[in-house]
Design brief:
Layout (H helix, E strand, L loop, with lengths): L1 H12 L1 H24 L8 E8 L8 H14 L4 E5 L8 H4 L2 E4 L4 H9 E6 L14 E4 L19 H11 L4 E4 L5 H7 L7 E3 L6 H5 L2 H15 L6 E6 L15 H8 L3 E5 L8 H9 L4 E3 L6 H7 L2 E4 L4 H5 L6 E3 L4 H7 L7 H4 L8 H9 L1 H4 L2 H11 L7 H9 L6
Parallel strand pairs: 1-2, 1-4, 2-3, 4-5, 5-6, 6-7, 8-9, 8-11, 9-10, 11-12
Length: 411
Amino acid sequence: MRRIHDFLLAILRNKRVQRFLVLVLLKPLMTIFTMLAYLPMKLFPINNRRLLFMSFQGRGYNCNPRYIFEGVCDEFGDDYEYVWVINNARLIPEDYRKKVKTVKYGNFTFFYYLATSKYWVMNTHFLPEIKPRKGQVYLQTWHAAGAFKKFGLHNPVYDESVKKRYVKDASHFTYLLCSSGEVKSIFASALELDEEKIVVTGLPRNDILFKNEKTRCEHIKKCLREEYGVDTTCKIILYAPTFRDLKNEDHLHLDVSLMREKLKNRFVLFIRFHPGLSSNIGCVLEREHRGFCYNLSAYPDVQELLLITDILVTDYSSVIFDFAIMGRPILFYPYDLQEYERSIRGFYWDYETFVPGPICFSTDELIDRILTVERWHDPEKIVSFAKRFNTPFDGNATRRVMELLGFRKHY
């Protein structure tokens, strides 16, 4: 029996077998459940004043849906009804929590509000089986500015079944927000979408980076001091590596011990993993380097971290398009550049001539650049890069989205 058990376990651990089980068994069952839950809810009328918001399938209160919601709520208040699809309602600030209904992703109440809300505001791919009803507006805000690494149909990692689901979902969009006309055609091609549906507004989540309000920065730093014990008198380095589709990363490729030795008392290191990556490594490093390294992968909103970051370190993350708005230094650490370019996703631009900051391939190089930042930092170059991928460059994206959707006072 033991041999049989081990044999079956070995089969189930095989990735091809797992993919087969998902495609042949799990996905069809999920599709059936989704349709059985959603179709009866279409018997209820659409509420023209109801807005449904969802970020990363209910995993967060952040990104563009958050800032659109807060903009509408602040200006129109009770003129509209707000529904947040969120698995942890406590992530919503208390002042706003009182003004919304919250539902968890995938339950029957979720499907009811999905079928009866006039507006859907989301930031990533949704269930392609669900088509908006006539009269509903599906606003896809997307979760990335610009276009850096290849995505959608251009991503060579995705198999055809995944690409078909993405295209089907995209066919349901009423509007897709885009940060700049520079990448409009890329979005259209990557999602097989008519360019007329793609609206260049800038991204609402970046409005706070333009305003850079001192009181907001102080509030964020206060929260970090109280919740994480961060010494906010130090300069902040944010390391935000991107998602590597096929690689199971089990270490950081960064010598944090060396960084601590050379930079402690002047800098602190924040580590922010992509939502698709495990943050276990960050937890271990935080324990080993307490007082210098902080794992902020679970921090609710990366825009708030960008707002208080002094130096950004990344590899292929589109966060560069957001952070560049403030003209602050960006360092690039693409330790697997050749492999990523040839075997994983690849890029829309020539990496080495495209990025607006020094490229480093070792921790020693990073440390040297951090310590000599005044010599190489060129704010004008970085802002020029930001203007190319954030248009209009004015911090009024939320206002443009509200006008796009025709929100108005009801008397």
